[in-house]
Every structure is written in structure tokens, then in C-alpha cells.
């Protein structure tokens, strides 16, 4: 097939306690990407503020907002002005006592094309998300836009091949992962390396297994635990874009804000799937027990 190029932008930024400052930082990066020809820009997970899930506090529910709401209005206006599709990530207040970790997709005309609510919710030291987020109830449904059918997933979803596969089976053209993941500063360098390599490898494997490009935006910078209980999180950045064979097209560093702008050839998915027909050869008659928690 002839090349079908989509130029994507990926924003990797550090965040502080000031929402307006974080949004303006995102805006500057989005404008930079758009000026370089990006047709779509991906922001990282929960980009309007620090990663607040390092501890549990009912007061932090005040950070949540409605969708549509202030952030979607801001991002939508920017999308319309620049003529780009924007993928953002927000703390959604759906109803009193009901909150989600929600990705939003703003069409290039400024309209809200769709949302995805994070399905897999972690609960680990420094990542107490089950306290804040209700698991998503919208399933794994791609969002149709002017630049393609977008399979948007969020952070912890990135470890689950089932999530990527479900998006692929629903016709996603690309997979997107806004994420917030980092090192425990107390871990040694070998452990840090293993964790980052595993994170990169699992997402590249989703590209290979499904014959789809994968675009990942992670935050960077150190964020302290305000309670002093833990040693904080050193977010490892490393945002990247890979093609449908898992080949790196671009990758950011670990320690600073960056904007990646990358050409992705959507036609390669068709060409790769013709040579590696994993979808054809799936034994769908033998997979019913995948819905079991454990087989033994």
C-alpha cells in the first residue's frame, strides 16, 4: 500500500501544583508541535497537576472536574485554533462521590470527539489510585476522529495485552498511552533499569502483536510525597513512538521536558499484517478461559 502519513506530537512535561501553569506549559508544547506540522498531539496522564495519588486524602477530590468542563473547553479552543486533534487526560468528576481517570479526545474543530475511562486501576505504594478512581465502564472502544480511529488507553492499562487487543479488534488505527510512571528513588540502578525496560518492552509488544503504531507520553521530573511517608517519585519520561513491528521512531530522554514530532505511516499496519497475520491465526475457539481469574 502507498504511505499514509500522520504526523503526531508527543508532549513530555513536568508538573507543579499550579493548574493554570501546567495547562499553559502544555499549550506551549502543543503550539510547538503544531508549528512543526503535527496533526495530532498526545499529552501525558493527569497533566493539569502533580501526580496526587502518592497518598490518600478526601480533600484531593476537589481537584476533579466535569467533562465537558474547564479543561476540555481550554483544550478544545486550542484544537480549533491550531486545527489539530488533542488527546488529554483528566480527573473526572462524574457525580458526587463518583470519579474517573479519563482520557479526552478533542477534534480539530474543537468538539469533544469522545472519552475513555481508565479500566485497570492500580493500588500500590505511591500509586493509590483505587482510592480515587472508579474503574471505567465504557469498555475498550476506539474514538473516531478526522485523523483516524484512535485506541486510547491510560497508564496501568499499558501492562495488559488484552486491552490493546480489544482496541485492535475494534478497528483502532493506532494505540495511545498517556501515562505517569517513575522510579522509587530508594531502588538501586539495576532495579530502575529493569523497570523502565519492562515498561518499554510491554508497550512495544502491543505494537508487534497487533500490527499497530503505539504512541506513549510519560511525565518527567521528581515529585515528593507531601506526607513524607514515601520517598516520592522520579518520573522517568522516556516517551516514545514505535511502528507496527515495534521499531522505534522516536524516544525522549528521562530527565527533561521534550516535544516529539514524528511521522507515522498508517499504511504500514496493512503491509505488516499481510506478512504477520496474527489476527488471522488467532484460535478464537480456544480462548474462552481468558475470562477466568485463574484456571487452576
TrEMBL record:
Pfam families: CN_hydrolase. This is Carbon-nitrogen hydrolase. It comes from Banduia mediterranea. InterPro entries: Aliph_Amidase/BUP, C-N_Hydrolase, C-N_Hydrolase_sf. CDD domains: CPA (cd07573). Residues 6-266 form the CN hydrolase domain. Keywords: Hydrolase. One of its GO terms (molecular function) is hydrolase activity.
Amino acid at each position: 500500500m502507498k504511505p499514509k502519513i500522520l504526523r503526531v506530537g508527543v508532549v513530555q512535561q513536568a508538573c507543579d501544583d499550579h493548574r493554570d501553569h501546567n495547562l499553559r506549559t502544555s499549550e506551549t508544547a502543543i503550539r510547538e508541535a503544531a508549528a512543526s506540522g503535527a496533526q495530532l498531539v498526545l499529552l501525558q496522564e493527569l497533566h493539569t497537576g502533580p501526580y496526587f495519588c502518592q497518598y490518600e486524602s478526601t480533600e484531593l477530590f476537589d481537584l476533579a472536574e466535569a467533562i465537558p468542563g474547564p479543561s476540555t473547553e481550554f483544550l478544545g479552543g486550542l484544537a480549533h485554533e491550531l486545527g489539530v486533534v488533542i488527546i488529554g487526560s483528566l480527573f473526572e468528576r462524574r457525580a458526587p462521590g463518583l470519579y474517573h481517570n479519563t482520557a479526552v479526545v478533542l477534534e480539530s474543530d474543537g468538539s469533544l470527539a469522545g472519552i475513555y475511562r481508565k479500566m485497570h486501576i492500580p493500588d500500590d505504594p505511591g500509586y493509590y489510585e483505587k482510592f480515587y478512581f472508579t474503574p471505567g465502564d465504557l469498555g475498550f472502544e476506539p474514538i473516531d476522529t478526522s485523523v483516524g480511529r484512535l485506541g486510547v488507553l491510560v497508564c496501568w492499562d499499558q501492562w495488559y495485552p488484552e486491552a490493546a487487543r480489544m482496541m485492535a479488534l475494534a478497528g483502532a488505527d493506532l494505540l495511545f498511552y498517556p501515562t505517569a510512571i517513575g522510579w522509587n528513588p530508594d531502588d538501586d540502578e539495576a532495579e530502575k533499569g529493569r523497570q523502565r525496560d519492562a515498561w518499554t518492552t510491554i508497550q512495544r509488544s502491543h505494537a508487534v502483536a497487533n500490527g499497530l503504531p503505539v504512541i506513549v507520553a510519560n511525565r518527567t521530573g521528581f515529585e515528593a510525597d507531601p506526607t513524607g511517608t514515601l520517598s516520592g517519585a522520579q518520573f522517568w519520561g522516556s516517551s516514545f513512538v514505535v511502528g507496527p513491528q515495534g521499531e522505534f521512531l522516536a524516544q525522549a530522554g528521562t530527565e527533561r521536558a521534550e516535544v516529539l514530532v514524528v511521522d507515522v505511516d498508517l499504511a504500514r499496519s496493512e503491509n505488516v499484517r499481510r506478512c504477520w497475520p496474527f489476527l488471522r491465526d488467532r484460535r478464537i475457539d480456544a480462548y474462552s478461559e481468558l475470562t477466568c481469574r485463574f484456571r487452576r
